[in-house]
Write a structure and sequence with these properties.
Length: 1252
């Protein structure tokens, strides 16, 4: 019988005897643990530990296993002693403890009398509870009175010894089910073991097993599926399930839909196979597979541990087994009580000061043997150190870069041997170290041993140091071990860790006994969009490779949300990936963006865009064609929804083939909309009207019919129309049913889905009263949120948006005429990020704001100003708990409201409809007045529209184009003597600056890097772009001897250069080629380019082919050069007198870029990855100026080639020492080179465009 939460809230501690309360210490007899019952006032009125107690705790023994739903605390009666926060540990035996995962502790008391009750989000089942104070009244001391609430718990338990199992045999030969519910709790002694298994002759199977300490479910339905379901452990990362504590598993299946819940974390998925039912033959086995080698099984070890309350479709399996019912057959030794675990672990808490010192047991021969088990997440740490005789010699066993190293240090000599790798996987590893004769032997996990040969006999002296070493004894620079150890034995004597804790044996520092208190920081997986989570003891990191997202938690899409936004960023027609819901769950999809017309069209083709001929179809046996698009149904819905208008052309050519029956008007042919609903209207008419476009236009060939084809003549005619009702698009299927008569034929064609406009970009509201605001539902932003919008105002300050909770809040505001502030509180105290501009932001022009907060960091971006970052505190509160409505343009207090316009407000990928809400709100109007507030593209190619009193002008300063509307290309012809040097005196806009509060050792990229240029040349080889540093690192883009485009990067001086060749064909063909390089890196660092020497000098460190290309220079034309918001080539033409620009040789303005008219096709590119170790750096704040040179068209601004600029900075960072937090050394950095080559055929057929 199970207790429901509503009935499971009775007090459990108030009636317990004196012996049920224990503590680490007590300040006096009147402060003992027994007086710690809630509301008790006798004696001292509560428990208080000794002032010298370094690890205080209060323990409650509930006398039997109970279900606990909440706990309550008070301070000590009538005193200034109370606990303000605490941890809750639980245990079945009182020896092996586990922390209840409620973030990082429970809120306690603020005075001595008020009762603070904390309801557990998920009830726990345990006999022992331990309250561990974390913080207390700074003006007093710890004082505690407690109560535990819950109810009794009925337990049916079975103990499996690793060679046993229970078989549940069916009444019939096989059991076929469309719905299954399986639940159990388990406690395992091993990392491997089968919990349940069943299979059928047609290929069905179900297996639930522990594998590497994780829980994997394999489930397959139907004979046609040969591959197993991917183990859910690869997605639902549930490590450490072999920790000798109870864990719950719950499986629900209906047809192919499956929910797997493990310890309150749920994964949803679909099964493999073609069937809907699970067919299992004869029996289900629990605890193991009794007959090894059966076909279709995933044979692992049998389960070793306890299983409790095992239910299969409502049947209590253990109860049946205990009562020896005939349906249950027992294999091996299955008992019905759970034997207590014998292993006791200890936890090493600190990477700098933890150690365990144990005396070396005497050995008559001087030989020694040490054995122990350990588990850790960290890639580095000292496991064991011992001084040897004859002195001075020392033996060290340590983890270094994930590998286990055994090193013997001797005077003037050193021998080391690498024994094993990847031991930081969180699993238990067994180590055996033996010194015998002239050999030291190391064995790990029973693998073949590794040996160190000795020059003389050695013996241990003094103590063995495990996990670290006190500073007075060792001078090791390696970090101490953080993790767990158990089963420590020295010379075959098992160490009693309880004696160590009691001070009877050895010595220790920063250790926790009776528990392996390792946190699984990847549970739940806070990496978004399917990113892989990896972890160390103190933090986790996310690998965003291949996800299409970037950032600390892979929250931000690297793609634009629509073709319209690509157009606004200066892109031209081509295939692009768009992410219609930004940071939302949908993911990116590829579309074609047609930007040749005034409207920007998004085109999504399907699998059958060619005409299809149909014959011999009837209403009873119709012709059916299904259309599949390169996007999911949800992605299609999102694209259509945010577009202003969508349409799809349908052409029906007919010969004696009707669309509607002339007798009753019922349709003979129809189509299905995106939801699969039947539609019989054809282009031009609203839903429900069974007519064709010729009827609407009144030009049908026979006006007695509503469609041309319904005239049913023996000659070819057609009905063509445009479907434009957005809620029904796109067409998912077409059905043709009237081509079975003599001479009857039809040829139909369904065009691509075409949409234009982006409603979110110009969705705006104007606020003209300080007390006015728009309100929306509460932000769903517990773990991550991003907020972006544009604003323009003349007001000096005002709140853009605010959402509050009981204590938590989030707010974005214009705090002064030159500053935007992002502030929030998740329980760690207010966090504030501010971006300040050197120019006013209340200038009545549009400004962009993007604020993001996740569990690792927060960021704020304003226009092109440097990004501000703030790292989240280690082990702080994670969840932002909001309860009020979201206020936009004001606050709940109706004070400090915003006056001006806000547009394109998006939160977590969802667009807020400001215009619709403004229609119903006083003091707010829909839209925003002004020439630059509409969707018409008045300024092109990144040109910025500037409002004037009597019109507008286009600011082309951040565009590579010129002219009144930024649409005239800027081109320059070069000869061998020509060069341009452009010097940046301020950091690039893509660089990262931090707030004063930030102390992060790593930062994440929040900016996009774009390089675009066109060139014409017949020369090969030729130097196009290059960048180099004083440290002989360089990045170069050249045309090779065969005319192919190559990108060279030489970032590690001890290695050969790496070459990336995205375009293998000859580009030195005298035609115009347009290159665009686009990168969004996961991390963005502040990088510094040193001034460059001319290419003719200082080329000693360059590769021979690069030197050859440089010596040839460049003869040709370069056009429309853009690096992010900088256009250096245009600046060289328009600001020749500037001190930032140096021109050598003739520089002649040209018109080679006039050929650049784009249309058409794509050549899918490549993805290149480069991995580097993320190391500490120094001289971070070097303020050297940045030099960008075009030397014989060596154009350095472009040479910070978006695909590699981050790598250059990382390589420079590798030279700094230890100024950054040590724990961040462990993460490796991956850089994605996402390459898409777009070859656009121009009208003249002599322009080629490449999008890299």
């Amino acid at each position: 019988m199970f207790c429901f939460p509503d009935n499971c809230n009775g007090p459990l501690a108030s009636a317990l005897p004196h012996s049920s309360f224990q503590s680490s210490s007590q300040s006096s007899a009147s402060h003992s643990a027994f007086y710690a019952k809630l509301s008790r006032r006798d004696e001292a009125g509560g428990w208080s530990p000794m002032v010298t107690d370094q690890d205080p705790w209060l323990q409650v023994d509930l006398r039997e296993q109970m279900e606990v739903t909440s706990v309550a605390t008070q301070g000590r009666y009538d005193s200034s002693d109370w606990v303000s926060s605490y941890l809750l540990l639980y245990s079945d035996t009182g020896h092996i403890w586990k922390q209840y995962r409620h973030e990082d502790g429970f809120d306690g008391n603020v005075n001595s009398e008020t009762v603070v009750q904390n309801k557990l989000p998920h009830p726990l089942k345990a006999r022992f509870l331990r309250f561990v104070p974390l913080d207390w009244n700074p003006s007093g001391w710890m004082g505690l009175r407690v109560e535990v609430f819950g109810c009794s718990y009925k337990s049916y338990v079975a103990d499996f010894d690793g060679r046993s199992s229970l078989l549940y045999r069916f009444n019939q030969k096989s059991m076929s089910t469309v719905k299954d519910v399986i639940s159990l709790r388990f406690k395992s002694h091993q990392a491997e073991g089968v919990l349940l298994h069943g299979e059928g002759q047609r290929g069905d199977y179900i297996t639930l097993e522990l594998h590497h300490g994780r829980l994997d479910l394999y489930l397959n339905l139907g004979e046609f599926a040969s591959l197993p379901l991917t183990p859910t452990g690869s997605n639902l990362i549930l490590n450490l399930l072999d920790d000798q504590h109870w864990h719950s598993a719950h499986i629900e299946r209906f047809n192919r839909q499956v929910n797997l819940t493990v310890d309150s974390h749920t994964q949803h998925f679909q099964t493999s196979g073609e069937g809907q039912s699970l067919e299992v033959d004869y029996e289900l086995s629990f605890g193991g597979i009794p007959l090894p080698g059966k076909p279709g099984t995933f044979l692992r070890k049998n389960f070793h541990g306890c299983i409790e309350n095992l239910y299969y479709n409502g049947i209590n399996i253990i109860d049946l087994a205990k009562r020896r019912k005939p349906q249950i057959h027992s294999v091996g030794n299955v008992t019905f009580s759970c034997s207590p675990p014998q292993l006791v672990a200890c936890t090493f808490l600190s990477s700098s000061s933890s150690f365990l010192s144990l005396p070396s047991a005497a050995s008559p021969t001087g030989e020694f043997t040490v054995r122990f088990q350990f588990r850790t997440w960290n890639p580095d740490g000292l496991l064991l150190s011992v001084q040897l005789n004859p002195s001075p010699q020392k033996l060290e066993l340590q983890i270094s870069n994930c590998w286990l190293h055994l090193t013997l240090h001797s005077l003037g000599r050193q021998r080391s041997d690498v024994s094993a790798g990847e031991v930081n996987d969180g699993l238990w590893h067994t180590v055996s170290l033996t010194s015998r004769s002239l050999q030291i032997t190391l064995s790990v996990d029973g693998e073949p041993s590794s040996n160190i040969e000795l020059w003389e006999l050695v013996e241990s002296r003094d103590n063995f140091y495990f996990g670290g070493c006190p500073p007075t004894e060792c001078h090791n620079q390696a970090p101490a071990f953080q993790g767990c150890m158990q089963l420590i034995s020295i010379n075959d004597h098992l160490v009693n860790l309880s004696h160590v804790q009691q001070g009877l044996l050895g010595n220790y520092n920063e250790l926790q006994f009776d528990t392996c208190n390792m946190k699984d920081r990847c549970l739940p997986n806070l990496c978004e969009h399917g990113a892989r989570c990896s972890q160390t003891w103190s933090f986790f990191s996310c690998d965003c490779s291949g996800t299409g997202y970037s950032g600390a938690t892979c929250h931000n899409s690297i793609y634009e949300s629509s073709c319209e936004t690509y157009k606004l960023s200066g892109s031209s027609s081509g295939f692009y990936f768009i992410d219609p819901d930004g940071s939302g769950p949908l993911g990116p999809t590829q579309v074609y963006c047609n930007m040749t017309e005034k409207k920007v069209w998004t085109v999504l083709p399907h699998n059958n865009t060619t005409p299809v001929k149909v014959q011999n179809s009837s209403p009873q046996k119709p012709h059916i064609m299904k259309f599949s698009y390169n996007a999911s149904a949800d992605q299609l819905r999102a694209i259509v929804s945010r577009s202003e208008q969508c349409q799809q052309e349908v052409v029906y050519n007919c010969r004696k083939s009707r669309l509607f029956n002339t007798k009753d008007g019922s349709p003979l042919s129809w189509w299905l909309d995106r939801d699969g609903d039947k539609r019989s209207y054809w282009g031009g008419f609203l839903p429900g009207v069974q007519q064709c476009s010729c009827s609407l236009e009144e030009n049908c060939m026979d006006m007695n019919y509503f469609c041309n084809c319904d005239a049913d003549i023996d000659t070819w005619t057609n009905d063509t129309g445009i479907l434009s009702y957005k809620d029904h698009l796109p067409v998912s299927q077409i059905v043709i049913g009237d081509t079975n008569r003599t001479g009857s034929q039809a040829v139909y064609h369904v065009g691509s889905l075409r949409c234009y406009g982006d409603k979110s970009i110009w969705n705006a509201a104007s606020f003209y009263q300080e007390s006015s605001y728009l309100y929306f539902p509460t932000l769903q932003a517990e773990l991550a949120s991003d907020i972006s919008f544009y604003f323009k105002t003349s007001s000096p300050s005002g709140v853009f948006l605010e959402n509050q909770g009981l204590k938590d809040f989030i707010r974005v505001e214009l705090s002064s005429p030159t500053a935007v502030t992002f502030s929030f509180d998740v329980g760690n105290g207010p966090a504030v990020l501010s971006v300040k501009s050197h120019l006013p932001l209340n200038d009545r022009q549009w400004h962009y704001v993007r604020a993001e907060r996740n569990v690792k960091e927060a960021s704020l971006q304003v226009d092109q100003l440097p990004l501000r970052l703030l790292e989240a505190p280690a082990d702080g509160h994670l969840r932002l708990r909001l309860s009020s409505q979201l206020f936009v343009g004001g606050t709940a207090s109706q004070q400090r409201g915003f006056l001006g316009c806000i547009r394109s407000l998006m939160v977590n990928g969802l667009t807020f409809d400001l215009e619709e809400r403004a229609k119903l709100t006083p003091g707010v109007s829909s839209g925003c007045p002004g020439y630059c507030s509409g969707s018409s593209n008045l300024c092109h190619n990144r040109g910025r529209c500037i409002e004037k009193s009597n019109g507008y002008i286009c600011d082309c300063s951040q565009s590579a184009y010129g002219g009144a509307t930024c649409n005239q290309e800027v081109s320059v012809s070069f000869d061998r003597e020509s060069s341009v040097t452009y010097t940046f005196q301020e950091p690039f806009s893509v660089m990262q600056n931090r707030t004063s509060q930030a102390t992060s050792a790593f930062t994440e990229s929040r900016a996009r890097e774009d390089v675009a240029f066109s060139f014409v040349t017949s020369q090969r080889p030729a130097m196009l772009l290059t960048v180099s540093t004083f440290s002989q690192q360089y990045i170069t883009t050249i045309l090779a001897r065969n005319g192919s485009l190559q990108i060279w990067y030489h970032l590690q001086t001890d290695r050969s250069p790496d070459v990336f060749s995205p375009v293998p064909r000859n580009l030195a063909d005298g035609r115009l080629h347009r290159i665009r390089i686009h990168r969004v890196g996961r991390n963005l660092y502040q990088f510094v380019f040193s001034p460059l020497n001319p290419v003719s000098a200082g080329m000693e460190s360059f590769d021979e082919e690069v030197v050859k290309a440089a010596s040839k220079g460049f003869v040709g034309c370069l056009s429309s050069v853009q690096f992010n918001h900088v256009a250096p080539l245009k600046a060289a033409l328009t600001n020749r007198g500037s001190s930032l620009i140096t021109i050598r040789g003739p520089l002649v303005q040209s018109n080679c870029g006039a050929l650049a008219e784009s249309t058409s096709h794509i050549l899918q590119g490549k993805t290149c990855r480069h991995r580097q170790t993320h190391r500490d750096t120094r001289n971070r704040n070097n303020s050297k100026s940045k030099i960008v040179s075009l030397l014989t068209v060596v154009f350095i601004a472009v040479c910070a080639l978006a695909v590699i600029s981050r790598l250059l900075y990382q390589q420079r960072r590798a030279k700094r020492s230890s100024s950054i937090k040590e724990e961040h050394r462990h993460s490796s950095t991956y850089t994605d080179y996402r390459t898409e080559l777009h070859l656009h055929n121009s009208v003249r057929d002599n322009v080629k465009e490449y999008y890299i």
